[in-house]
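The material for today's practical consists of a large collection of protein records. An example says more than a description, so a record of this kind follows:
***
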Amino acid sequence: MEKRDYYEILGVDRSADVEEVKRAYRKLALKFHPDRNPGNAEAESKFKEATEAYEILKDPDKRRRYDQYGHAAFAQGAGFPGGGFGFEGFDLTDALRAFMRDFGSFGFDDFFGGRASTQASNRGRDLQVRISLTLEEIAAGVSKKLRIQRLETCPECSGNGTAPGTQRKTCPQCGGSGQIRRVVRSLFGQMVNVSTCGACRGMGQVIGTPCPTCRGEGRVRSQTTHTVNIPSGVTEGNYIPVEGKGDAGPQGGPAGDLIVIIEEAEHDVFTRRDNDIICIVPISFVTAAIGGNVEIPVLGGTDTLAIPAGTQTGRLFRLRGKGLPYLRRSGHGDQLVQVHVWTPDDLSESDRKLLRQLGESPSFKAPKSSKSFLARLRETLGV
């Protein structure tokens, strides 16, 4: 099957800068992430496809090679300068790891890696919980108390799974090794097939008399609370792994992790763009014409913005450092304030009379349409 164009996948122009590529990928990744689409093979494929495109277009060298040679530059063993990058083997695990690296768990890069597989086979299950944060909470950082349903170590047998006064026994099936070795004869000689023992699940021991409380499982279901500290500057899609707070492992196995997934609540006033926040503020045409101070919202309160005389609707004001803090470095984004001239729709007769008189003044005559005027207007409105 022929691969789609990477620019088309992300929905960006070929001239898009790295930040545009990053924003486009993050939007698609959050939409098609497997956590949000469990069991959806199409979403999983789109997530992997978008991540592969992002990995190429965010890297200047790889992007240059793609622009020059197309997908052929990344074929395994491609005969281009420097060789191919081999993206045929780019699978879902690679895609998840790439997403976590740039947007995920604050440096816990092994969360989607092979950590679970290198633990004992009876490691407990990881649990996920989603937390919705307001922009105010994201700006300041916040502690959240979570109520979690999880499997905890059985207090009766301390996770051993055996009844009080009894002990585990060596597994008669594998002799305590936890593995079953079978010799298979073939045309090429004898081969040894090693597999996990099904009787003891690789533990090498079996339970003679199970604990009556947990029935040999070594864990019981309970509800617990845990406080997680969320740093300022997080964004939707970030993960915070809390080690050992998932389900306890069966029969004394190590516990899984609790994965806290960050979501952003929609704000009544502000729209977020990376670490900048944007709001629209209405002003009267009197203020727009002669200037004045207006009250504007800021995160956590209000502030005053000076409007210069002759301000046109759509003008954008930038308040440096009034946005959200950066996650891994010092400093803040900006707050962008776009002013819109408000036209009253319920005038008294005396108001109408005054406005008619003002309308006769040359100062209140709208300029005739011209190329230069229309250009200035488009620039003001951003169209």
The radius of gyration is 31 Å. The chain is about 25% helix and 25% strand. Residues 282 and 340 are 5 Å apart (CA to CA). Residues 77-86, 105-120 have pLDDT under 50 and may be disordered.
